[in-house]
Amino acid sequence: MDFNDTPEEAEFRKEARSFLEKHLKLKDANSPRRPSGEDFLKRAKAWQKTKAEGGFAQITWPKEWGGRGGTAMQQVIWNQEESKFEAPTGPFAIGLGMCVPTVIAFGSDEHKKRYVKPALMGEEIWCQLFSEPAGGSDVAGVKTRAVKDGDEWVINGQKVWTTGAHFSDYGIVLTRTDPKVPKHKGMTMFIVDMKQKGVEAKPIHQASGGREFNEVYFTDVRIPDSDRLGEVGEGWKVAIVTLMNERLAVGGSPGPDWKEIMDYARDTGSLSDQAFREHLADWYVAAQGYSLTKFRTQTALSRGETPGPENSIGKIITANQLQDICNTAIEMQDHYGIMNDSDSMPANALFQQSFMWAPGLRIAGGTDEILKNIIAERVLGLPQDVRVDKDVPFEDLKQG
């Protein structure tokens, strides 16, 4: 592995840093961790437009789509530098990281002309409509039906845990178009206008206090066949492209790490606790292991290679570590740990707020179990899980 930038990469990092310093503030202890609201959305759109005009939005995309035509390593460098600043990027992560790349891969030329640049410029926001109430972690278990009616498809069903659906303009929706074949063969993907008649998004009030997830209901929603992505019945192939992008996009955790709980322990005199120091050592070792794994990925990108499924390890480590760190910090606060008041609690109640968010991170972008299966089967070469439903028509599968 090579931990150092090449001269070209160092020059690009300097350029990126200069651009960021010109437009944003560096993060500090008082920077909001999970900002939201209308004002945040406006700032996010403005920042996305600024990035695009400066040539730093979706660096690897071709110039004709508004990108820079740069390398994957340049995108990694940009992400590293941007993460140090108060950059309002959240509303565009799913659209530009997962949805629009799917449109580029499977959409028509008309789709690319219509949707790519407005998303890149921050004018339109996208969401991903996969998960369903009865599906759990099984993406192929979708029940939302799409029935052909002339040159249109009529969609009825429900999605859940859809991030940003309440403020999104468009989405990609995975539907069941043929229940008479096995579940992986009877799906089709569409582009859907989230503002059209029959689409209803209902924000879910989370334990953390946030409302970024939604239930989305489809009632006789009509979508033209021209807005289909991929062939009829081949939605799983389209979904895999989206999911591979998702695994890479949902990689780290936005909460406190071992450095922050060590600082808190130092301030409260808890570093003398032997049990806590053992926990701290475990967190440090895991974090360093993940950091070196990322270096391996970055080295591959720098050499023009494509990283493999081993990237799935990132979220398993960081999501579980986040939950463990926050739980430990709350226990250190004794009965005061139940308070979630940012004005009176240590670290502005960061540990409490992140503790309530952490379980969701272990689900978003693939559950721990799904990611462990990917690592076991595709990295370690272990035998696949037994699938008793592999050749069973979807309509014959037991429900409930």
Automatic annotation (TrEMBL):
Native species: Henriciella pelagia
Span of domain Acyl-CoA oxidase/dehydrogenase middle: 127-221
Claim: Oxidoreductase is one of the keywords in the record: yes
Keywords, in A-Z order: FAD, Flavoprotein, Oxidoreductase
Name under which the protein is recorded: Acyl-CoA dehydrogenase
Family membership noted in the UniProt record: Belongs to the acyl-CoA dehydrogenase family.
Domain Acyl-CoA dehydrogenase/oxidase N-terminal: 6-123
Names of required cofactors: FAD
Residues of the Acyl-CoA dehydrogenase/oxidase C-terminal domain: 233-380
InterPro entries: Acyl-CoA_Oxase/DH_mid-dom, Acyl-CoA_Oxase/DH_mid-dom_sf, AcylCo_DH-like_C, AcylCo_DH/oxidase_C, AcylCoA_DH/ox_N, AcylCoA_DH/ox_N_sf, AcylCoA_DH/oxidase_NM_dom_sf, Mycobact_Acyl-CoA_DH
